[in-house]
Design goal:
Two copies of one chain form a homodimer. Chain A is of the alpha/beta class. Chain A is built from 17 helices and 14 strands. At the A-B interface, helix 5, strand 3, helix 10, strand 13 and helix 15 of A face helix 5, strand 4, helix 10, strand 14 and helix 15 of B. Chains A, B: Its cofactor is Zn(2+).
Chain lengths: 436, 436
Amino acid sequence: MPARLDATSADFADRFEGLLHAKREASEDVQTLVAGVIAEVRARGDAALIDFTARWDRQTLTPATLRIGAAEVDAATAQCDPETLAALDLAAARIEEFHRRQVPEVTDYRDASGVRLGARWTAVGAVGLYVPGGTASYPSSVLMNALPAKVAGVGRVVMVVPTPDGQLNPLVLAAAKRCGITEIYRIGGAQAVAALAYGTETIRPVDKIVGPGNAFVAAAKRLVYGTVGIDSIAGPSEILVVADAKNDPAWIAMDLLSQAEHDTSAQSILITDDDAFADAVAAAVDRHLETLPRAAIAGQSWRDHGAIVTVRDLLADAPALVDRLAPEHLELAVEDPDALAARVRNAGAIFLGRHTPEAIGDYVAGPNHVLPTARSARFSSGLNVLDFMKRTTFVGCDPAGIRAIGPAAVTLARAEGLDAHALSVALRLSAAGTQT
Amino acid sequence: MPARLDATSADFADRFEGLLHAKREASEDVQTLVAGVIAEVRARGDAALIDFTARWDRQTLTPATLRIGAAEVDAATAQCDPETLAALDLAAARIEEFHRRQVPEVTDYRDASGVRLGARWTAVGAVGLYVPGGTASYPSSVLMNALPAKVAGVGRVVMVVPTPDGQLNPLVLAAAKRCGITEIYRIGGAQAVAALAYGTETIRPVDKIVGPGNAFVAAAKRLVYGTVGIDSIAGPSEILVVADAKNDPAWIAMDLLSQAEHDTSAQSILITDDDAFADAVAAAVDRHLETLPRAAIAGQSWRDHGAIVTVRDLLADAPALVDRLAPEHLELAVEDPDALAARVRNAGAIFLGRHTPEAIGDYVAGPNHVLPTARSARFSSGLNVLDFMKRTTFVGCDPAGIRAIGPAAVTLARAEGLDAHALSVALRLSAAGTQT
């Protein structure tokens, strides 16, 4: 049974605190193993990649067959159902359109002292995209990770995807093709992350690695961080639905299950102001579970991590709870979702109103589906174009400009005991005729 | 002697590669010790903070004296030299002005399908600012870390600063006061990071921790990352000066030393197109070192990690080298710095022209002085207002909107084997009269 919490009960604060801090994932300690894999790839390059791929993916590769060529991509794409390809195209076009609005502008101005100031943005040079193999190999994630990089102007996007026992989802290759990715390697695991970070004879290193992966991939990304950039380490998926009694319980129940079906560690929470509605949703979940193909996973997630919280008044009481949960996905299935949204600070993405199920955002809405999990929406954002760009600030002084602001720099540098700092400014000031 | 590299010599590629990958810092393994400190603070709260502070800072505290009160801040500020306070005010005003331009705008629009899309930004709720004690206790860093948080609208900024043997730089408290920080604790090290991340009886936890620190602080920040956000882990400072022969060698030499004086692990590199100028700068460095107060540190940094690279043509040859070095600070002391800057992709901050020494950016220019080190300018940016905000995307469909884009979501969800995703959309579609 999912937990039932009542905001008006005496033990609510404690139980809600428990919900916030419950650990959902067993953390595997794979650090040592992964560090060894990375060291091997750094030392032996392609040969190590080939050995690890033989061992873990049961695939015999050579340096020449590490890469998946254009013919293989085309053949895979030709195998895909045309309707699915059309849906992929629609999704890609909408994702691109949304992300294009994130491209930042240059700032370049002279201030009142005549000092030129500004900031400009450039794309990361080369990005590696990790795509999991097996059942978690989602073409939608290829779009969500690759398209912001493309919109940012990243010149080289490299994809790695393991092909255990030779299996590879053709839609993943079709999605890569739609994103214009031409450099694809059939490798995975920590060895693929190491190859992207340090390079091998065949694979040139990248500057940043993004994309989801299992515990080995996550550990490898942590270990190579610094040598390259990484995206955040994603935890299991979460949804928080705030719903009043005017919703169809079957709809809300399916929304809760759409996160629960991802993973037994996923978490679905409902906040409502009506006990009878809460009961109706719980019953609808049980009904849906009778027919849902992934009922085993979804049911376990719902029983172990699901929760229903009842409050007196949604607008008054829900926002504070939402902010503490800081959910990855927040669905506001109420009459006036904007009023509620305006009171919420912490959420990765918000789905407004009764006709906006979270799943629409997983595929075709346009905003990114890579979002902060495990309460990290308190301090971080979903994947976006800025993750594939970096800002360089600039300053330009002429003699008048340094006369205006230089003396204060000299004073502060001296106060901090950094005389070369002070002198590097003072030398220009004395050339410009200012005493310091 | 600093390394001398000639871009036209046969061994240049190898030697430049060596410069790129030379390790400048001995990495201390403090992980286990720090994990123990964090566990103690989580278990025993204030009592652990007080014990660690007695042991390492030789200070006897109580829960009541952990906090530095307003009277102590005022008294410290009153001790400061008025000219220095005025310089601090000028710096603060300029930093605020520059950072205010970074505050992002809301996006909120309806697309061609009538789907409402957008993104809004909210400030991180509470931020902890670590300020080192002792000689690295810089008031300028208080401004650079705290003011972007204030501009972002962070409601609670908490400062921690150790006071070993009771020592505390009064200018640090004056800087905190100028930034409007009223919650300050006299604690440091891993224990202070743990208190900020997990909270104690006296200190409420924060959502994100920023600010420089020693190896213990850096290790603690890595360990609490995920529970809270952190800024990037800063490495030793770096400057790359690109200068033609028309510069005064004494100015360029002082600019190189202004980074070298930070730390024996700091790195200063000159790229020039004139051998005689290179010699003149090297000689000027040696002359400056005869009188510079921090000559021992600056001299060792210059000898161990400094380098002078000569190339044939600055505009043609320097940008590729700059991009590979991806320096924290890039000074372009040439006639037309914009032409060179336009060809550079990777740099934390650029200082344009002969009258813009890097030190002006450390204090008063306005852009942030917390910048990516150790070649991470390839994939990351300096500290800025967005580091204290997070983006929440939103989607709103009405029945017409979901009819327009829902069928593609159903198709993709089914292709990925996620039936609850498909059904959560399909339920709305059938209510809206669309077959799926």
